């Protein structure tokens, strides 16, 4: 079984699912309305109260997850945690509370995972579709065909923020709704053309907000013209009028709407009306699949040795015309050297391998200082499957591949990172010196100092080797690490 934990801007949720040969069947789902986005203060920091609510929920989640035999667990955080300025303070506490690493994913990665969940649930390999997901802090538009994603964008407008910004004090009236709708339309306006109806056959709504709106419309008989459960511009306008007639969030009482959700549903409704008007969507079908289902499918595919990160690295090698033979040689040698240093984390060899495969992509920008260009591209690029944390680590490894080590000095306190840097730099040295690590098998150890053992004849056979090793000794000495060399 797999567990997907979604730390959203409005609610924290988790789902536990089991792959049955064709589909992932959900065994248990839990939702807690934490309203993290509403806990951001005027300076963009999470308040103490919001953090405490979140930590209490995460501890509860941890206790429940511990009662299941799980093959893998993945915890992802979305818009509000991307934005919170004090996230560096909160994140370690949150990870301790849940007992697993928390991945703050980009809006684009969020969209890809959402689409993966929807596409696998639909199982229609040739259908061209648009998926709309309205979260508490952001809205994702994803265009695809079957299982393949063609385009994904994340827009910084969500139900919580829209509700707080336009329905002040819970007041619901026509001017507030029109202002909220126009605001949403202005955000989608520039990005709308690639998502117009001529590029897809059917549109789906994957978020809890859209499913809740569709349920309210259905249970209140607001659109008899729709042949199946779904939403149309007409039904959304009728629902908007019902909300306006109530006048205040506290007085909204409609079948299908839980009282605790009214405060955010109004903002979500304004966004949905705005996006349907701007994109020209005539009908949107709600679907019981999205981010958490996508996370579970991603975990399943990784267990089957199908990792989207591999595909992303290969795509970037092609995009930047990387010399794949050189890159693969450095990657293989770096992992072999790292294996001698016995890293404590299983993730380190993989991140090192991918970093090495991309270590020269900055040459597409300039031969001079290419390692800096490589580092910048890796950290800031849209690399499907990778988390922000993973890209940052890979970026630092790329930056550390050559030259002085002072630029990454503060990160060398992490033992696994330091081991990976040693392995990558030496793999590059051996590549330049034309030494085949697989055949030569240099010996490498690292505790308080680095100990490297080479064959004496290599200096004669590879004239530049002594120069490169001497430079390495100087660079490591600058950060207080001794690189000892001996010959066998």
From TrEMBL:
<feature type="domain" description="Ppx/GppA phosphatase C-terminal">
    <location>
        <begin position="309"/>
        <end position="472"/>
    </location>
</feature>
<feature type="domain" description="Ppx/GppA phosphatase N-terminal">
    <location>
        <begin position="24"/>
        <end position="300"/>
    </location>
</feature>
<dbReference type="InterPro" id="IPR030673">
    <property type="entry name" value="PyroPPase_GppA_Ppx"/>
</dbReference>
<dbReference type="InterPro" id="IPR048950">
    <property type="entry name" value="Ppx_GppA_C"/>
</dbReference>
<dbReference type="GO" id="GO:0016462">
    <property type="term" value="F:pyrophosphatase activity"/>
</dbReference>
<dbReference type="InterPro" id="IPR050273">
    <property type="entry name" value="GppA/Ppx_hydrolase"/>
</dbReference>
<keyword id="KW-0378">Hydrolase</keyword>
<dbReference type="Pfam" id="PF21447">
    <property type="entry name" value="Ppx-GppA_III"/>
</dbReference>
<dbReference type="InterPro" id="IPR003695">
    <property type="entry name" value="Ppx_GppA_N"/>
</dbReference>
<dbReference type="Pfam" id="PF02541">
    <property type="entry name" value="Ppx-GppA"/>
</dbReference>
<protein>
    <submittedName>
        <fullName>Ppx/GppA family phosphatase</fullName>
    </submittedName>
</protein>
<dbReference type="InterPro" id="IPR043129">
    <property type="entry name" value="ATPase_NBD"/>
</dbReference>
